């Protein structure tokens, strides 16, 4: 276990460096004058002129070479200093703190909804493979998977906010604001995970140990409860970790669409105004989030899988 | 008295119309045994499924099965479920696959007491522990199947299968892969069912059939070859296949002559190895010479396979060295090879054997004549080359494994229980081909088996791991 944790820590450090560096390089490759974009972010597009751009350049020393800027960043990162926003001038860490909380809330609610959708549908279809229900679920999930998540979001807005006027279109506030963005994310995740659960359920109920459970006297429900559910859970948990990447990707789009003040929203804004420290920090936080979710799932699997020998470090074959 | 289980003109066909069981009739009376004996293959296991009413979809069945005098077709699903375990117990083939991989052994037994006998959780756990104690499995209750040997899993499966208390037992290959001692204990347990209820055993083990007595049915390719009283069939077999089967079981082996002044080809010097906290070998020395046949016996878990893997350099020792005294370039043509117990795990399931053979031929360039000669010797027909591995029986596939090995002309072969899953006739063919190759090519063999009599007969010397540690 200790080796796993140290491996994850090393991964986290690597992710921080790699994501930060990549976003730095990519921002450099974007066309357009950086000083103008930053000035526009600060004072609005109407106020931007050569003078404002020059001011930004001299203040932030943008005329330095890219290499020296990169090593400056790397040096302060080593001291855990993520720098200040180029636009607001405030420390990046301070800005991100709030946004991270909001994103986390959205991600959690979305994951819970997706599990609530996918598990019942997946297990139902897995126990009745090739039935009408199974084919319908495959059809619907294929259609949903084919849509980018913001299309799902847009359709939800059109139906529930504009047509039925049941829920707010976008924004942040009471609990009613989270319903649409979380559901959009959840639908896109459940489209995939319901099929995954269907397959592992089907494998479990057609396995020889399941059949043996029936033949040794357990009823269908008892056998499912004891010889399918734990086995399905153990396989589904790591899949949630894999899906975390979908979730993080979806969050960037969904937060922008619904103006949800989270880290994805902040990332999009930072990109428009070339706020490199903000971009790097939010991308790094998302990378760390991915590592953290997977470490958490590893830990959960470690705790619930009886095949893992907790006392000895060396497993028998 | 009505028979417990009866089959009349039972025929079972698969999707392609192949007859897995053809026109089988039998009846099992109270307190008696029925043994179905035959080649390793699909037909016999499907029969057990038919008797329990759990044939997979796509398999069709004609004729009649009666359970306790009532036709199976007139038994509803819920009535059938009430018969399972409570009236008829089923001991599946390959218990390691029939046990839930993530549930501790104790729970897999105690749940039967809990849900069938409606005992409280604690009482059920106690009952399960009692069954484990009776089967000499004290202290293993908390383990999951992957941490137990085949023999242990088999006993747990037996405890779980019979916990509900059914009087009749259907056992599918109950001794497959077990060593002699465990097989004998299993036979004793089965005999109890014969005496107090009823027993149907499906097996390829002639000795098992002999000891259980009762009625015997000999099957081949789904056809009934011979049927009758066990002692009569086994002492005076009428059919030539039955005669072959019996002579194979009783066969005495002549080991090839030892070579004069053989050169050593593999030496293990001061080798130590441990698994987990358990030390398997300490300063172990072994020299293997050309033409030598070394037998290896010992209980499960003593490190037979580990020692074999060490000699193949598949495992690295903790200390000590392993040396080959011939040019050894594994990438060119392997000179050391292993024939494993379960051929199904060594072939890719979805490629026809012809393709696998052609690939091997392209890489290692052997004569086509050779292929035919060896296939002939192994009794393999060229028609089988078009099939995919999973379509062949265990016996056919094991002979293909051996074919692929012999074509590469290895200097040293490890045979890890090569015949424990085979019927006796196929086992004889495999052993014969192996021995004649060794004699012809001065190759060495490490033969691992549970069968001490066989090992003593064929080997020049025997490593007994029960005595070394």
UniProtKB/TrEMBL annotation, chain B:
It is found in: Cell inner membrane. It comes from the Bacteria. It is a peripheral membrane protein. InterPro entries: AAA+_ATPase, ABC_Ni/Peptide_Import, ABC_transporter-like_ATP-bd, P-loop_NTPase. Transmembrane segments: none annotated. SMART domains: AAA (SM00382). GO terms for molecular function: ATP binding; ATP hydrolysis activity. Residues 5-246, 266-469 form the ABC transporter domain. Keywords: ATP-binding, Cell membrane, Membrane, Nucleotide-binding, Transport. GO terms for cellular component: plasma membrane. Belongs to the ABC transporter superfamily. This is ABC transporter ATP-binding protein. It comes from Persicirhabdus sediminis. The lineage of its organism: Bacteria, Pseudomonadati, Verrucomicrobiota, Verrucomicrobiia, Verrucomicrobiales.
